[in-house]
Amino acid sequence: MFKHKMMRNEILFIILYTSYDRGDNMLTKLKNSTEVIISILLGLFFIILGLFILFNTNAIRNEEIPVSEDKIDTILDLINAFFVEVSNMLSMMIGGFPIVGGILMLLFGLGMFKIASWIRTTTKYDVPLTFFFLGLSLVLFIVTTILMTSVYGNWAFLFLFAFIIHWLYSIFKEYLNDKHRKEHYMIILFFYGLAYFFTQNSVYSSIERTITPTDVLSVNLFLAIVWISSYMSLWVGVFLLKANNLLKKPVTDDGEVLSRLNKKRKTIDTSKLDKYLGFSEKLYNFRNKVIDKVKNFFEIDLPSWFKVSYLELILGILALFFIFLEFNNRNGVFVEGYFKLSDMQTIYEWVNLFIALLLAVLYIYFTVMVLFRKTHYHRQMIIIFALWLYVTVSLYITLFKDVELSLFILPFNIFLVGVLTPLLLISIFKEFKGANRNEKDRKV
User: Fold this and answer.
1) What is the pTM of this model?
2) Cβ neighbour number for residue 411 with a 10 Å cutoff
3) Does residue 235 contact residue 152 with C-beta atoms inside 8 Å?
4) In this structure, is residue 225 part of a structural domain?
5) Where are the transmembrane segments (predicted)?
């Protein structure tokens, strides 16, 4: 009896171990085939877009169709409103020849499947495919910007400017000193933040006069899909660029020429480059002077056990709690039966609060990773910047724009800005050192 139990336990252990090993191998295979998967997803996107254009040629060819929010009574009405808004946007680009545009999209999507097979089976076409994907990412974002003008006006071109900076940084990243990665991210985030502020200021100036919440939600959803496609294309282009060392950069070792099949890179000496972007040293010196003056004035010192991540966790959890309260208030409208699909304002606020809640959860996660694993500092900085910008712009809109849409009640919004601003300052002034500059995300 005892032997039978032992055998069953051993068999169960072997099954569990084999299942885990298979799952791990599958994840590894998926990770090693990321560029192929992205190519297939891009192909699917263009095929679906082409079919949508062909089935809606009349709507795209005709004048813009207004969406009446009062007539949205069912989920199908809501989905139809989204398709109408997408048709209105596409009419700006291909209104005169929707059939030709739809056929070209279909052919392009099918071509992406052929490109995926090339990437999977050979390195013969890596050089032209590198420039193809880099160009595709730029073209997709230019198209996105043009479509964004229907809601955000000419301020949408600020996003294009920020993306071009990001695009160039991704391509020429290795020309820059990786010791200054923090400064690079701060510059990119600054331009994205600037674009976000001015576009939000523009849309909230018109959201109840010429633009409705339905317009903003539908347009943003479609643009997010195109935007993600653009970044996926950029990722593949940069990956192929680095794998084949197309920039012909000087290297410190004499290893073999790179192949993307083994995904190994040569180490590049950039110690003399990027010398003008080390402005964080001045920030650290200013921080140290302020801390020293405060400690001398109060004649105290920080306890040895204290870590700034403890403060980040406390404030982060506090921000998460108040965001969750506001989100739960909107969610209660759905649960208690007072909600109607025609009330697009509630849906708009719910979606935006859900995004804020997700950012707060991600910040807590990355803060824990920084505290216990000493990694993911850059991700933590990006998330707290996005969350701070989201909440601060919301406060600005509430105070200075005469609109009924508001993500937070005013006391909550002021409190959240007061909590998140120190977290952003901590992230900016926190020194970040890495023992190994080749690590994907260096250690604090």
Assistant:
1) 0.78
2) 9
3) no
4) yes
5) 36-55, 90-113, 125-148, 154-172, 184-199, 219-241, 308-327, 347-372, 381-399, 405-429
